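Class, carefully examine what follows:
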Amino acid sequence: MRQNEPTHDGTSANGTNSTSRRRFMAASALVGAGAFGLGGPVGSVAADEHGGGMGNEEGMNGNGGMNGEFEDDVDILNYARTLEFLEAEFYRQGLDNLGCSGLLDAELLADFGHPIRTRVFDDLETIRDHEVTHAEVLGGTIEDLGGDPIEKPEFDFGTAVEDPDEFLATAAVLEDTGVGAYAGAAPSIQNAKLIPPALSIHSVEARHASFLRVLGGDIGFSAAFDEPLTREEVLKRASPFIVE
């Protein structure tokens, strides 16, 4: 997929862009411990087999340990809605600030050829639109359940929406966090009818994460299993960007 083809400005793209890739891996380390250190898939399956799986009011038990993290389904949906707002606003600000030419200045993209370089900005706009749609649908579902959807918080992403390499690295971290968040919260859902749409969002978030990982020079599917993140782990990663 990656080639030593000319970049958008006609210069040769040689080498491995080690500085940007180190930056990418450093950002990815923010979620590494949480994403792969919360018990294994065997523990999750065992919890499900003992009555703590999806659709069970008790939530996960054993190594998964999701009991008590959420008050009810509305709480779970508002939790997910907050993350979707965060991702949508991150992409909106970053893409608006950088524009197509600014994004293509990223060292991480320097040695990509067609079709990645010609489509990457449009693809990230599509991801942004997905996040907006997710937040809207979650809000409507909350209202259908008789709850109050949270309003969009105020966010501050600092230089992550100004520097193209930091933007791509942070996007990968946020997408990985979203995948872990859905995996961690889904077993606590009480209304079984909410599980299929929740899983459909989760699978799309995983596709986003895979795409961003590839842009960062990593493999998009580095493990056979995705591990759940606890609410505490997710909020630890999201809260630095949330002003109010």
In short: Helices lie at 18-36, 41-52, 73-103, 116-144, 164-185, 195-215, 231-238. The chain is about 60% helix and 0% strand. Residues 1-66 have pLDDT under 50 and may be disordered.
